[in-house]
Amino acid sequence: MIDIVTNGNAQVMGLEHYGLRVGADADLVVVEGETHVEAIVARRQRALVMKAGRITARDGICILPA
Fold first, then answer.
1. Would you tell me how many other CB atoms lie within 10 Å of the CB of residue 48?
2. Which residue, among 44, 9, 10, has the nearest Cα to 25 in the 3D structure?
3. Cβ distance 28 to 39 under 8 Å?
4. Phi and psi at residue 47, in whole multiples of 5°?
5. In a 3-state reduction of DSSP, which class is residue 66?
6. Measured in Å, how far apart are the chain's first and last C-alpha atoms?
7. What pLDDT score was predicted for residue 59?
8. Three-state SS at 3
9. H helix or E strand, kind and range, residue 47
10. In this predicted structure, what is the pLDDT of residue 2?
11. How far is the C-alpha of 9 from the C-alpha of 28, rounded, in Å?
12. CA 46, CA 40: separation in Å to the nearest integer?
């Protein structure tokens, strides 16, 4: 199931440089959950969001420079 919500979406959208591998873009979202299923369905506040290796949000608050 976790592969569907990570790699499946990227494949459908035709994204390149995606996944956990050297050379891939450092885009990720960290959420709390006891299991991957809970993390998906509970829809909790995002603990950390990164885009291209830069932190863009923490604890649900955008921290991009103005």
1. 13
2. 10
3. no
4. -75, -35
5. coil
6. 38
7. 93
8. helix
9. none
10. 67
11. 13
12. 11
Tokens representing residue 8 in the block: 């499946």
For 6-46, give the secondary structure using H, E and C: HHHHHHHHCCCCCCCCCCCCCCEEECCCCCHHHHHHCCCCC
What are the backbone dihedrals phi and psi of residue 55, each rounded to the nearest 5 degrees, phi first? -70, 125
Conformation bin of residue 53: beta by default, left when phi > 0, alpha when psi is -120 to 50? left
Q: Are 48 and 61 in contact (CB under 8 A)?
A: no
- Pairwise CA distance, residues 4 & 56, whole Å: 24
The burial class, CB within 10 Å (0-12 / 13-18 / 19+), for 58 is middle
Q: Which helix (DSSP H) or strand (DSSP E) does residue 2 occupy?
A: helix 2-3
- Condensed to tens digits (0 to 9), the pLDDT of residues 1-14 reads 667 767 777 888 88
